[in-house]
User: Fold these one by one.
Assistant:
Number 1:
Amino acid sequence: MLLGIIPFVGGLGLPELMIFAVIVLVVFGNRIPGTMRSLGQSIVEFKKGTSDAEDSNEDVAKDS
């Protein structure tokens, strides 16, 4: 079954990818903004956590 799909993947061009993108936007369009917002908040929290860890490491190094 999978071997029948692999040759098709090599034949994807720009028009096929554009059609696929439009279909994905129509099906999942209302979920994309919320997902991107959550992703952005996660990145901000990760950066805060890493900067806090760096700050605490610098404080420990100064105390030693």
Number 2:
Amino acid sequence: MVLVGEVVSDTSPEWHIVPTWRNVSTDTGRATVPGVTDGMDGMDVRERRHAATRDALLESAIELIDSQGYAGVTVEAIAAAAGVSRRTAYRRFRTKDDILLELPRRWLRIYDEALAAHPDVVGRDAVETASLALSAYIDAHRRETLVGLAALADSPTLASTTVAHDAWHRRVVDVLVADGWDAVDAQLVAGAYLGGIDSMLAVWAPDPDRRPLVEVNRRLHERLRSIWGD
């Protein structure tokens, strides 16, 4: 998931996005999304060092995969590009697939932090607010996202995994149940909503014009109003 200015919806807080990239083809910068941190709040020095190593390995993997393709990249090459030893790389990640799965894990952390930043926003509004925050992050890290999505699709192992999808489903269900929804209804609506999100990404990623994902996400939210029982 290019965005300038602010994203405002009738039911969601404003997200002011500060782009730090200059060119999508060379971007490795980060954007600031209110309520979303670098994921290191509350960590001690050792935990911060480990998190920084994981980030470095993921970012090096994205660079190498972009230039060489997923099949042509090894954990050893990723470790060398990140400036860490092979042993350190294998301590953080068991396989190359596991390194790439750090990308959807990062998205989950961003989603969680967006929810935590607005504890008074509940139910559908909470789901949509966190989704827009993540879309804003993806807009500001477009290259990382596109390379990662392509690699995830190219790997037979990763393409068949349901780990990330199950984690998203649990999060949406938990938000709705906390707002008083019946558990079965929450599961059905979460499945329908995430199906819409999957379709949104499938339409957005190959689009040569590639509008801001936040814009596409807001359009999706408008189309999905009926599933919430409004």
